[in-house]
What we know:
By secondary structure, the protein is of the alpha/beta class. The protein has 10 helices and 7 strands. The longest helix is centred in the middle third of the chain and has 22 residues, at 186-207.
Amino acid sequence: MHKHKAEGVIPQYLLKKLANEGNEKAKESIVRTKEILKKRMDKPIKRERDVTISSAQPVRDHNPDRHIYDCEHTESRRKKLARSEGDPATNDDDVNRAYDFSGICLDYFKNVLNRNSIDNLGMDLIFNVNYGENFLNAFWDPNRQEMVFGDGDGKTFLSFTRSLDVIAHEKAHGITEYTNNLEYAQQSGALNEHFSDVIGSAVKQHAKRESADSADWLIGNEIVGPEFGGIALRSLKEPGTAFTNDPQPNHMSKYKDLPVNEDGDYGGVHINSGIPNKAFFLVSMEIGTDNAAILWYNAWNNREYLHRHAQFKDAFEAILKTAQTLSSQGMMPYNTEEAVKRAFSEVGIYSLVGV
Ligand SMILES: [Zn+2]
């Protein structure tokens, strides 16, 4: 049995930084996030059937239903069922956004990635909104297989249901769990975070009908408040520029070797993810974001290369192999393989292969 680590969309190291600057809500949210996520997985989750190129597989029959629960500003989950699949809108913005945005995610998974919900078996989606009092976080709970969203304090963070990319990011953690289950530490952990940012950006751009060159490439820009000190949580286009002292590197030469603990962001999982994030942005600029997302998603299903302990160079090899396979099937633009090599060499990952 392995130890299962998970974090909220706001990493503990960042909440700690805010707490050290005197933010009381951040202090409370650190404790709550930890309590909720400290439980370990006591039984392995049900796995989808092995698929190498999943887009060749038919989408399965069962249509996932959405169930949005209102925690009514308490810490009890699944407190009041506020809106289920097919129900009309309610008068709570958080309930409606969770419903609408998760619908957009499910449509993207199905229509673009050919995946049926998080588990690829049509799993229903459970959301808990208005969790706690001004709770400063949102997360995918791997133990209970459901999502939880706080309201924020209106100063550092606004309601966590406001960002489509944050909702897609959290769901993508679920997908990773069902595909390669990347270990949440150091490079494999940074790849885990990276994939969630990839899906977050791709879903948002698709929904807003943006192209790679017109998109802002920001994660969480709708949830940061006036006192946050930045414009978003991360930038895939310019890692390290989202907020004051944003620690994300954009090249292997600036890779941060951090301790595998909370203060070190488990070896920099939300930090070093900037490097592959930049590579994804570069590939998207050449072949389009949806194509790049399809490529990444299929690579994530290639467990020969992208196994639980995969490193950045393994991800590169998986993506390159997938680019070759999909291109030979006429499913990717002719320049995909070159675009992948160029991007990973620009961020300093490609040169590492074979060294
Ligand atoms: Zn994450």
